[in-house]
Design a protein that fits this description.
816 residues, alpha/beta, Alkaline Phosphatase, subunit A, 3 domains, two-stranded antiparallel ribbon, 29 helices, 10 strands
Length: 816
């Protein structure tokens, strides 16, 4: 009897004949598995969009006309793109506040708070939340942020006329197809990240100022400006561009905060002197913040917390408070942060009531101030802490807000009911009509407090109902996708056990093999029948085509698994008969595998885990090598120090400021490492441990000047990074010759290693120096030092692997 590792223990005669056939079968089967795996993961990946990124927009709702008089005739919306709340409210290093005008508004004229944005904290979804009142699903990114993937209602749509000036990426989204709008944008070429982008904000203000000046000579424009229900929108992009280019702690970004404050002051003075009727409302906010790294998009508070200042017609005046009755209630906002911390002391606003809102709440606030219907897809709650209205009008405003959200719920309920074979209604709103009647009765009886409470309760239930229908199919989809992935894993395990172990021959009797072949047709028949019934039910429910694909893929996988039920039964019987130690060994292997997977998952958010990993590996590896290599060779110490030095980088902060000194230092370190490696390559004859990776054939090099050329390019790259950063800091445009030089260094340096010598160390040194210029040109701050550290780590692995090969050891025996 013999075992081939694939077929198990078989008769040697039979094995010799069956091995080639078996190997061909394995090859065909694995080709099919690769194709199936690609299709399966592509289809299941699309389920993310059906589960999490489903559009919240529905059409067919009626407008809810407000039953109160408009507090304002016109509204000014100033959006400082990329402005963080803390950088706006906190003082500078000298104790002076960066936004003196808006700070005086907070203290004397209006209300303030923090507007909480919801991820993705990008410009388009942020502006959609502010102006349209809903949180656009991230799937819009697949269709382009710039254009409207779907039509949606907004405050601009309901206005009499909208005047808008700003970025070509934002303004056309809302005004491009709006007939009652006047708008203009600057060219894309104006967005230069190498300069101070605050001039973009000045451009928007100049356009607005020019509009008012033209109205003095244009009677038709002047008449238009005298209408009510006007919206003036200025998009101020400077903070966003400067935050990306220079990061939010730079002097350029912080100075841009002063620029937008000065623009807000000038806009206010212009309009107050132009109209002289005190019927203008002003709202200043931002679409998202900016992380210390100069990016945005995630849910970190630096990205989600934005300033909100409102003043003018219909806005309450500041309300002094004591430390005990502060209005910072413990509420959960859409950014999933509990607002349970007090206002920072350095903001100097603890004595004034702070009213935080969700970003989508700004849309119903603007609609209420202008006396307009709320956008039909808005999910924002009217923030009563901002509006200055009579008690009766406040109730009417909240009721209009409630009815608008309720209409969305009813529409979604109607759509889902019409397509579901078994519809599960949202029970808390089963008697919504009686609640509406009760509110109207309370209004007639002038019991405004009870009417307000019931209206807010109905609004909260409506929002929960919207979430209910938004996630209506979640359980079904998550279940079928989870079963699909589990089925794929089980199917692969069965294949590996059958193809690459001897289990198939050891545990499978001939009777079981015959029985399984006989039952295969029945299993496939039942699988096809179940798939057909499922597809028919999905068709009756008008489900999307991808739903059919999810179910079909999962049913197919489990049909294949059930087809192997005889083998699985035999495997279970085999494991049950083995010793307990064997089972413990399998469980231990599984636990270790899960631990490694969890370690990798947690390392995405806890980078410090790698620090401990490098420290432990450095210690264990050096002790292990000490038993094989003498300390005088230097290799154990080199391995330990290299690992320990590399462990420092995962302790470094993710926010990386510019540091020109590190640029020069990194270039010098890289060059010194290169010279050291070159010296070792030429003088390693006396050390047998280093000799294995060095060129000991003293023939003339093919390109003697290659090393010096590469070292020169590393030095030039450091100088170019220093010059480019200096130009940007001084708000100067990068010269064309600098750009050409940078591109030349980055591209040409990576080609040079192709001409290096064949020795291991010389080739590694050439690759190390060849990619260093590109790395230096693309790095900032302490990140420059990672390249020389990584180079030493590669050299360490090369040294140890060559030593093991020279001593006949297997590289797999190295503990790292």
């Amino acid at each position: 009897m013999g075992g081939d590792g694939i077929l198990g223990n078989r008769d040697s005669k039979q094995s010799k004949g069956s091995i080639p056939r078996r190997r061909k079968w394995v090859k065909r089967r694995e080709t099919w598995l690769v194709i199936l795996g690609v299709i399966l993961h592509a289809v299941y990946m699309l389920s993310i969009f059906d589960i999490y990124f489903k559009t919240p927009i529905v059409h067919g709702m009626d407008l809810v006309s407000p039953r109160f008089s408009a507090p304002a005739k016109r509204l000014v919306l100033l959006v400082a793109d990329g402005l963080r709340a803390d950088k706006f409210f906190e003082p500078d290093s000298e104790g002076n506040f960066r936004a003196p005008f808006l700070r005086s508004v907070i203290k004397n004229q209006g209300r303030w708070g923090v507007s909480h944005a919801r991820p993705p904290t990008e410009s388009r979804p942020g502006h959609v939340a502010i102006i349209a009142g809903f949180y656009e699903d991230p799937s819009a990114v697949t269709k382009g942020w710039k254009a409207n993937p779907v039509e949606f209602d907004s405050v601009f749509n309901r206005s009499r006329h909208t005047f808008s000036f700003g970025s070509p990426d934002i303004v056309p989204i809302f005004c491009g197809a709006l007939p009652h709008s006047t708008w203009n944008t600057y060219p894309h070429e104006f967005e230069d990240f190498a300069t101070d982008a605050s001039f973009l904000d000045e451009w928007s203000f100049d356009q607005f100022k020019s509009l008012l000046n033209r109205s003095n000579e244009d009677p038709q424009l002047k008449k238009l400006l005298q209408h009510d229900n006007l919206v003036i929108f200025l998009h101020l992009l400077g903070c966003d561009s400067n935050g990306h280019a220079h990061r939010p702690f730079s002097s350029i970004y912080l100075n841009n905060v002063k620029v937008v404050d000065h623009i807000a002051e000038r806009v206010y003075n212009l309009l107050e002197s132009y109209y002289k009727d005190n019927r203008t409302s002003y709202i200043f906010t931002a679409d998202h913040g900016m992380s210390d790294k100069g990016s945005h998009g995630d849910g970190h508070p630096s990205n989600t917390d934005t300033p909100l200042v409102a003043w003018g017609a219909g806005i309450k005046h500041p309300k002094p408070i004591s430390g005990r009755d502060h209005s910072d209630h413990v509420l959960r906002f859409v950014d999933e942060h509990l607002h349970d911390t007090p206002t920072p002391e350095e903001w100097g606003l603890n004595g004034i009531e702070r009213v935080d809102v969700n970003q989508a709440d700004i849309a119903p606030l603007m609609s209420t101030l202008l006396g307009l219907p709320c956008p039909v897809n808005s999910v924002g709650n009217l923030p009563l802490g901002y509006v200055d209205m009579k008690e009766e009008e406040e109730v009417e405003a909240v009721l209009a807000n409630t009815k608008q959200i309720l209409n969305q719920f009813l529409r979604k309920s109607q759509i889902k009911r019409s397509s579901s074979l078994y519809f599960k209604p949202f029970k808390p709103l089963a008697h919504y009509s009686s609640m509406l009647s009760q509110i109207e009765d309370l209004l007639s009886a002038r019991d405004y407090k009870a009417a307000m409470q019931l209206s807010e309760n109905l609004r909260n239930l409506s929002l929960k109902g919207l979430h209910y229908f938004q996630t209506y199919d979640w359980l079904m989809l998550m279940t079928i996708i989870t079963l699909g992935y589990i089925g794929w894993m089980v199917f692969l395990v069965v294949h590996v056990l059958q193809a690459y172990t001897s289990l198939l021959g050891d545990i499978y009797t001939k009777e079981e093999a015959v029985r399984q072949k006989y039952n295969t047709g029945k299993v496939y028949l039942w699988g096809c029948l179940f798939m057909g019934i499922t597809s028919f039910l999905l068709f009756l429910e008008h489900s999307p085509p991808l739903y059919h694909a999810y179910f079909a893929m999962t049913i197919f996988l489990w049909t294949q698994i059930f087809n192997e039920h005889q083998f699985i039964k035999a495997l279970w019987r085999h494991l049950s008969g083995r010793k307990f130690n064997y089972v413990i060994k399998l469980l231990t292997t599984g636990v270790v595998s899960v631990f490694i997977l969890e370690f990798l998952v947690h390392s995405f958010t806890e980078r410090k885990l790698y620090t401990w990993c490098f420290l432990v590996v450095g210690a264990i590896a050096s002790i292990y090598l000490y038993n094989l290599i003498p300390w005088r060779s230097g290799i154990p110490v080199f391995v330990c120090l290299t690992c320990w030095f590399l462990s420092l980088f995962t302790l470094m902060p993710a926010e990386i400021p510019d540091n020109n000194k590190l640029v020069i230092a990194s270039g010098v370190i890289i060059t010194l490492i290169g010279f050291t490696a070159k010296w070792l390559d030429l003088h390693a004859d006396g050390n047998k441990y280093w000799l294995g990776i060095c060129t000991h054939d003293m023939k003339q090099s093919r390109f003697p000047m290659l090393f010096h050329l590469q070292a020169l390019m590393v030095g030039l790259s450091s100088v170019m990074v220093f010059l480019s950063t200096s130009h940007r800091t001084e708000k100067q445009e990068l010269h064309a010759i600098h750009q050409l030089m940078n591109w030349f260094l980055a591209g040409f340096s990576m080609v040079l290693p192709l001409f290096s010598d064949n020795g291991l160390l010389s080739r590694l040194n050439s690759i190390f120096l060849g990619f260093a210029p590109t790395f230096l040109l693309l790095s900032i701050g302490w990140f420059y030092l990672t390249w020389p550290s990584l180079g030493r780590e590669i050299l360490q692995v090369l040294l140890v692997s060559r030593f093991h090969l020279s001593t006949g050891s297997s590289l797999s025996s190295v503990p790292f």
